[in-house]
Amino acid sequence: MRKTLRFRKLKTILLTSIFISIFPITNLYAAGFLRTEGTRIVDNDGEFLLRGMGLGGWMLQEPYMMQLSGISKNQTDIKRRISELVGADKTKEFYSAWLKNGVQKEDIDLLATWGFNSIRLPMHYNLYMQPSKNGVEWLEEGFSLTDSLLAWCEANKMYLILDLHAAPGGQGNDLAISDAADVKLWNSARHKENTVLFWKKLAERYKDKEWIGGYDILNEPNWGFQDSEDLNGCKEKLNEPLRQLYIEITKAIRQVDKNHMIVISGNCWGNNYNGIFPLWDDNMVISIHKYWNYNTLGEIAGYLKFSEENNAPLWLSESGENSNTWHTDAIKLLEENNIGWCWWNYKKMPNSCPMVIPTNAEYELIKQYWKSEAERPSADVAYKGLMKLAEDTKLQNTIFKKDYIDALFRQTKTTETMPYTKHLLKDNSPLTVYATDYDLGRCNFAFYDKDTANYRTSTGINTPWNKGNAYRNDGVDIMPCKNLGNGFCVFSIEDGEWLQYTIDVEKAGTYSINLCTIAENTAGAVYLSVNNKRTKTVSTSGSKLNWHTSTFNKVTLNKGKNTLRVYFEKGGVKFSSIEISKK
Predict the structure, then answer these.
(1) Sign of dihedral through CA atoms 416, 157, 96, 127?
(2) Tens-digit pLDDT profile for residues 428-453
(3) Domains (ranges, CATH) in the chain?
């Protein structure tokens, strides 16, 4: 136990120290309730720009976050499947461990250290309330989790914004995001009443808490009120039921709480505001969600118009699920237009997040069974895999993606590159540099790749930025390469792409540099640029069976920092490592 605690503290200290060195914290502590002042959010010291992270997957599991896309439709279905494998009691034990481990004090401490000043909490109503014969029974579990989270946020001078992610009855036909099965909210007076009661109860509890940043009262409604064929409400012209519910919730909150901002979202996953305006309260924020489109002024011009016409601030309450390049460009665009942001998402199993939850062999067997690709695992095997998964949601067990955080903060302010990891070439000792450990920085500065982000809502084309979805979140394509180097290699390299590495050299001299590659198609062609001096072009092997060494002799390296770029004049190879040795 003591060893585990020491490791947890060591990892947290390590993560903290890494990012203090990468990006010095400039966030000033806020003071007082957040509130709106015209088109800006302010505190007692003036304008306050929200820079936040969402805690999706904690209180509400979306299937894709657990690598269950195409297997389960929502959290209720996931629970049902788990219960069929291990029984009701062990299912309850798994979810108890999931909630206990998924967000702890050290998580919030780390987020604050990185530079985040706010947290968005996606809430599932069933942790706070359940219908009863007498109306509603209030549950302590959700409130207790929220109280602890608020205390950790307050200790770090961070705002906590409460977001109703799963409303009673479900707020739309995208079943996964609200854990809905048969959507009933819009056709049920009781579910609407319970949604209003939910917010009044929270407002009563937190009305005097300054570090509650606001109430995000309904996440991504998506429902066709006028046209049942318009499943997600993207063509809706009036949105009357949505506006009316918002007004009723606002009225209930204001009966007990005059302090906190109220955040509203449009239909069609927060994008369709037809019929929602004019606003009905003087302390309201217009939420927008932005995914997979171009990061141009034209993409947000309509929202900026909403802000000016209603004299209310915009807040990008959800965005992400894209490459580092897209993230950097989006945040630059937002901050240039004084729009605060909250990224999605802190922890999950896929690669595009700062803390990746690792899988395990037993959980993989569960997935294979659910996909009808393997026999049913025993209850003991399934239980082991699930509890291991819950244990691995703890901070010290997740896989840290430092390039992701670097893109949100440092890269939005500078084009300068910096080492992904330290590469020190000592005299008479060869140095191995893994291909995947190229420098941190923007495309065209730390690397060049032709597919750097997914713009499918603008182009209609679903483009993977990292085709292997492994190791890093840049446009560089990385895949597992077992029993080789660090277990990963760069692949799907196109003509003209390149990677940059910063090498520290103890002693100036002439060195030999070897590149380890293997053909994917035919032989490639590669050259180096060392401190802006180009070498000759060397052909790589056309063999798809054996790794090949491309050698560059008599390469001069200076004492101290050296910049090495590997240019693929002709791609079509996999690239594993660089070895530098004294000639």
Answers:
(1) negative
(2) 799 999 999 999 999 999 999 999 99
(3) 49-407 (3.20.20.80), 416-582 (2.60.120.260)
